[in-house]
């Protein structure tokens, strides 16, 4: 087995362009339309051997451009004269399957490649119609893909490329049996690409069974976490976690934030605490219907929601590039989970900040994970409520003064109002009016009337597809906006 260090004559990341990687003109045009200027190191290393037809094992974290790394060879290898499925991407979650399908559709637009997403919670009949219409590439969850194979609505006799995306995650979610059964339907003569953030023993077993003499590209073996992520922690009593999170959101003023919780109930509580206090937040967990999950993600990507409280369903496979902050409300059970959570920020060269809220019983787990990956961490002293109030007031004042200079008539009126004895209450009331107006920019996530009837079916599909995030053991409220700062000492935390 060859490794990335063998070099094999491929372009170096610094010198490579998409054109130099041997990509066709129609696909190059599609990449330009998507705003892709230069390939990422992951794409530079992956695309040439994939185009040559070699099996690949790629260890690379989320946010390195891996979807395009396998998506471009997939699109390039499609025989447009054939209408049957020629490429399959298996993904652990419905969200990832949908996002991969969208990415493949955009990359394949220039060549006219037809793509479909196949996942649980969506109509089997609709998906069957799509497959019969001549789809050439599919991205799907293991449970639903296997359902179609068993029913005969999916035929893989023309399959050329088989891709396992987030392979370690699929194993963690219990899809090993489904993956094994799917492979029985796949032609022996095929190209297989496996992508995984980590390569534990279970993944190696998968590799030896599914791949033939693969090229190993260990692109993150020695740097599992991105150096553009600043890792900090706050030690805070459990009963003050929600308030501290709220204060930090105002203090840090993230452009976009994810708050990771260990359970669905905890996620709901955090969301309600923030929402009641006026922060434009939503929640994402496996018990939401597929339609609601898609609408929440769409609103989050578009910036209508600034804070997303979520379980680990969002730690892998949700493509949001501009997350400035990750808040880890509950310390995960494994170091790998922390890496995936923190990896939602600092993507593709952008800086980010991962802030862990540690209660006394979290400290041991946190120390273990930072030592495991040699992560440099710093303590952040949480701001007091008074500090947050003063900082928020300064920002409000700056914003108002920038937006309005004040006409002579308005200034005269202000003089009269400020002469009143109740001027504190007057200013507070004006701030409430201003706050209410600011809230209006957040478009609510409406519930589709048909979803009430479909919710039960979605839940059943979730269970059959095993696509839900496994729960781990594990307010009150307004002020709009967010508020950047504070850094403290380096090193692992001590129990205070």
Q: Descriptors for this entry?
A:
496 residues, alpha/beta, Rossmann fold, 7-stranded parallel β-sheet, 18 helices, 14 strands, 42% helix, disordered N terminus
Element layout with pairings:
Layout: H1 25-33, H2 41-51, E1 56-59, H3 66-77, E2 87-90, H4 94-107, E3 115-118, H5 124-132, E4 137-140, H6 142-151, E5 161-164, H7 167-172, H8 176-183, E6 191-196, H9 201-210, E7 215-218, E8 229-235, H10 241-252, E9 257-260, H11 264-276, E10 281-284, H12 290-301, E11 307-310, E12 325-328, H13 335-342, E13 352-358, H14 363-372, E14 377-379, H15 385-403, H16 408-418, H17 423-439, H18 451-465
Parallel strand pairs: 1-6, 1-7, 2-4, 2-5, 3-4, 5-6, 8-13, 8-14, 9-11, 9-12, 10-11, 12-13
Helix pairs in contact: 2-3, 3-4, 6-8, 10-15
Gyration radius, rounded: 25 Å
CATH-defined topology of the largest domain: Rossmann fold
Mean pLDDT: 79
**What is the CATH H-level superfamily of the largest domain?**
P-loop containing nucleotide triphosphate hydrolases
Shape descriptor? elongated
Strand order within the widest sheet? 3-4-2-5-6-1-7
Oligomeric category: single chain
Number of strands: 14
Major sheet details: 7 strands, parallel
Q: What count of domains describes the coordinates? A: 2
The name of the CATH architecture of the largest domain is 3-Layer(aba) Sandwich
Bin the helical content.
Answer: 40-55%
- Through-space gap between termini: 49 Å
**How much beta, percentage-wise?**
5-15%
Which structural class matches the secondary elements?
Answer: alpha/beta
Stretches where pLDDT is under 50 for at least 5 consecutive residues are: 1-13, 221-227, 440-456, 466-488
CATH class bucket of the largest domain: Alpha Beta
């Amino acid at each position: 087995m060859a490794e990335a260090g063998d070099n094999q004559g491929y372009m170096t990341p610094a010198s490579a362009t998409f054109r130099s990687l041997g990509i066709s003109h129609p696909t190059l045009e599609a990449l330009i339309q998507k705003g892709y200027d230069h390939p990422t190191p992951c794409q530079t290393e992956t695309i040439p051997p994939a185009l040559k037809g070699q099996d690949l094992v790629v260890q690379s974290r989320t946010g390195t451009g891996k979807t395009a790394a396998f998506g471009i060879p997939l699109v390039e290898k499609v025989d447009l004269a054939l209408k049957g499925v020629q490429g399959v991407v298996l993904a652990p979650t419905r969200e990832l399957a949908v996002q991969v399908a969208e990415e493949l559709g955009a990359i394949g637009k220039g060549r006219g490649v037809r793509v479909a997403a196949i996942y649980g919670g969506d109509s089997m009949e609709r998906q069957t119609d799509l497959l019969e219409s001549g789809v050439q590439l599919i991205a799907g969850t293991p449970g639903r893909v296997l359902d179609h194979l068993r029913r005969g609505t999916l035929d893989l006799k023309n399959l050329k490329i088989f891709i396992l995306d987030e392979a370690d995650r699929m194993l963690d979610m219990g899809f090993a049996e489904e993956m094994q059964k799917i492979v029985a339907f796949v032609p022996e003569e095929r190209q297989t690409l496996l992508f995984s953030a980590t390569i534990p023993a279970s993944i190696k077993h998968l590799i030896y069974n599914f791949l033939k003499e693969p090229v190993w590209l260990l692109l993150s073996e020695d740097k599992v976490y991105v150096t553009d992520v600043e890792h900090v922690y706050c030690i805070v009593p459990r009963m003050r976690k929600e308030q501290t999170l709220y204060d930090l959101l105002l203090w840090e003023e993230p452009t976009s934030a994810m708050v990771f919780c260990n359970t669905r109930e905890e996620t709901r509580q955090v969301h309600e605490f923030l929402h009641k206090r006026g922060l434009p937040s939503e929640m994402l967990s496996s018990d939401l219907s597929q339609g609601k999950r898609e609408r929440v993600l769409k609103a989050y990507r578009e910036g209508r929601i600034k804070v997303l409280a979520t379980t680990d369903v969002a730690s892998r496979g949700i493509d949001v590039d501009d997350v400035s902050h990750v808040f880890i409300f509950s310390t995960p059970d494994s170091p790998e989970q922390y890496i995936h959570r923190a990896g939602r920020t600092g993507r593709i060269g952008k800086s980010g900040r991962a802030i862990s809220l540690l209660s006394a019983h979290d400290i041991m787990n946190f120390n273990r994970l930072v030592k495991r990956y040699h992560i440099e961490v710093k303590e952040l002293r949480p701001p007091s409520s008074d500090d947050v109030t003063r900082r928020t007031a300064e920002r409000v004042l700056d914003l108002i003064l920038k937006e309005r200079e004040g006409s002579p008539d308005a200034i005269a009126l202000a003089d009269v109002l400020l002469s009143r004895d109740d001027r504190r209450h007057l200013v507070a009331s004006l701030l409430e009016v201003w706050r209410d107006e600011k809230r209006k920019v957040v478009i609510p996530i409406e519930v589709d009337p048909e979803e009430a009837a479909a919710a039960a079916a979605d839940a059943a599909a979730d269970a059959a597809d095993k696509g839900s995030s496994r729960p781990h053991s594990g307010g009150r409220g307004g002020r709009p906006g967010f508020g950047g700062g504070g850094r403290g000492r380096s090193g692992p935390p001590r129990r205070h």
